[in-house]
Amino acid sequence: MFSLRNPGQRVHEEEQGQGQHLDSAQTEAAFSAQLIRHNIQVALLAAALGMTFGIGTALLLFENGVLLGAVAVHYTHQGFGLFMTAWLLPHGVFEIPSILIAGQAGFYLARLLLRRREDRNVRQSMREWLVLVAGLAMMLVWAGVMEAFVSQHHAPVLPYGFKVAVAAAELVLLTIYLLMIGRREIGTEARSRVPSENR
Amino acid sequence: MTDTHLTRASTAAELTIATPEGVLFRLPLAGPASRLYAMLLDTAIVLGMVNGVGLLVYWIFSKAPGFGFMVITLAEFAIGFAYSALSEGFWNGQTIGKRLFHLRVIDQDGLPLRMEQAWVRNLMRVFDALPFAYLVGGLSVLSSPLMQRFGDRVAGTVVVLQTPLAAPVEEFWMRQKYNSFMDYPAIAMKLRRAATPELATLIQDALRRRNELAAYARREIYRELATYLQSEISPFPDELVEKLSDEQYLINASGIVFGEQRPSRVRG
Predict the structure, then answer these.
(1) Average predicted confidence (pLDDT) for chain B
(2) Is pLDDT of A6 > 80?
(3) pLDDT category, A141, cuts 50, 70, 90?
(4) What are phi and psi of A8, to 5 degrees?
(5) CA distance to A109, A128, B111, B137, B166, per residue, from B156 (Å)
(6) Among residues 127-166 of chain A, which lie with CB inside 8 Å of chain B?
(7) Is the dihedral of CA A37, A137, B52, B126 positive or negative?
(8) Which residue of chain A is at minimal alpha-carbon distance from B155?
(9) What stretches of chain B show up as alpha helix (H) in DSSP?
(10) Is the pTM of this model over 0.80?
(11) Which of B104, B148, B147 is nearest to B124 (CA)?
(12) How far apart are CA B220 and CA A184, in angstroms?
């Protein structure tokens, strides 16, 4: 169903054919909307497939991971590592964590289902699932915008070093954000959990 | 009265809620068919909204079709998920489709739906809709005693049928100052509790249509209703009932059922 194309040819096409398939901000905007919609659909499916006790979530993550890994190895082996890093990371640093969070939401749901006899508050706990889904949807909006407007521009328009630097900056911001949001959640959770567990 | 029992029996499944006070609530659950109709109607409404937004956006963005496409795609996507979730969340468990088919989403403990439950059950549609035509969700409804699709199971919600019940209008029989049934609060309370919406409506309709009925039909109907109430539901003492006409009996009874004052033991 899927055969890996020759990376050298693709890199050449991407670098030369800048004016062809993405000629303006117009097309990029339309492209970004499609990306956002598709990515959120996939992520939401991964989160909802927790209903299959996590099996569906695992399969979905596995498939996406294998494809990404195969492409990465293929390009790197042929010496296009920098091109590929600059091609994928500006949006990838948000996209990949968000699909991981979707997987986390799926497994969280699976755990709730498996342990529903002991902890019968599936209803209350689904709030956390909802928070994860809402957060990853926001992240995927940003990833979609970056993928269409930044990732598809290559050297000489956008130097690879600049693109990787942008990705690194995004990664730092995202890490700081996730660390801070996590800390605040633990604080409120600890306060609110005490009475609810005594029910 | 057999009619009431028949309509009751026609709904296969019921949600029974037992409160700590020992009161039992029974709510008829909605089957897959009416939910499907409501969903089709809602889908049509969403398509209408999306196309309306689309026309507007194309007009606004006529100089920038790419951005127009972006706005439409995202709006379509957001409306598709948010329509049901927001209308159920803000409108006490109903969308336009559900309202027209007399459905309501409630918490499975009988509490009102919370906003996060509305979002969870609607986001889980991506799973229930698998692999096509809501096959997974449909099988889940058929195999669940509470007729829940997977989204309902996770959110802890059920879809119930709501028999439309007109709010009681103030009628001549409610204006009477003295109601001799109030002298027997225990029996009156029993009547008030036992009156199903159908029975209450029946009594009210019989009284309201007093002047449309021929005299002999009126006598007959009032006698049957009063006899039924007296023998099956609220046996008021004979010395009281003997003094009342059948019509007065029904007027008193509906005063008890619809009256603002609750018969209470404390008073008197």
Answers:
(1) 83
(2) no
(3) very high
(4) -60, -45
(5) 13, 15, 11, 15, 29
(6) 127, 129-130, 133
(7) positive
(8) A123
(9) 2-10, 32-60, 65-90, 96-100, 115-123, 125-128, 135-143, 150-155, 185-194, 197-208, 215-228, 238-241, 246-258
(10) no
(11) B148
(12) 72
| Shortest CA gap B97–chain A (Å) | 25
pLDDT digits (tens, 9 = 90+) for A172-198: 999 998 888 766 555 555 545 444 443
- Which candidate in A24, A26, A53 is best for mutational testing of the B interface (most B CBs within 10 A)? A26
- Closest chain B residue to A24, measured at CA: B66
Residue count of chain A: 199
A39-48, B157-166, B254-263: least confidently modelled range? B254-263
First to last CA, chain A: 53
The SS3 call for residue B21 is: coil
pLDDT-derived band at B265 (thresholds 50, 70, 90) equals low
Determine the Cα–Cα distance for residues B85 and B67; give it in Å rounded to an integer.
27
Contacts of A173 (CB under 8 A, 6+ apart): none
A130 contact residues in B (CB cutoff 8 A): 116, 119-120, 123
The predicted model gives A25-36 an average pLDDT of 87
Provide, as residue numbers in chain B, all residues whose Cβ is less than 8 Å from the Cβ of A149: none
Q: Which of B89, B154, B149 has its CA nearest to residue B118?
A: B89
Q: Which of B137, B113, B139 is nearest to B125 (CA)?
A: B137
* Domain locations in chain B as residue ranges: 32-161, 172-258
Closest CA to A58 of A67, A70, A71, A47: A47
Q: Please tell me the predicted confidence (pLDDT) of residue B44.
A: 95
Cβ contact A130–B155 (<8 Å): no
With CA atoms as reference, report the closest residue to B125 among B104, B152, B94.
B152
Pick B70's closest partner by Cβ from A33, A45, A48: A33
pLDDT at A86: 86
Q: Is the pLDDT of residue B75 over 80?
A: yes
Give me the residue from B67, B127, B154 closest to A49, CB to CB. Answer: B127
Long-range pairs for B199-203: beta carbons < 8 A, 24 or more residues apart: B199/B1, B199/B4, B200/B254, B200/B257, B200/B258, B201/B165, B201/B166, B202/B4, B203/B229, B203/B250, B203/B253, B203/B254, B203/B257
Instruction: Return the bridge partners of B16, or none.
Output: B26
- Structure confidence by residue, pLDDT tens digits, B20-36: 877 787 888 888 888 99
The tens digit of pLDDT for each residue in B95-149 reads 999 999 999 999 988 888 999 999 999 999 999 988 888 899 999 998 988 899 9
- Beta-bridged to residue B28, according to DSSP, are B14
Which residues on neighbouring strands pair with residue A126, listed in sequence order? none
- Prediction ipTM score: 0.81
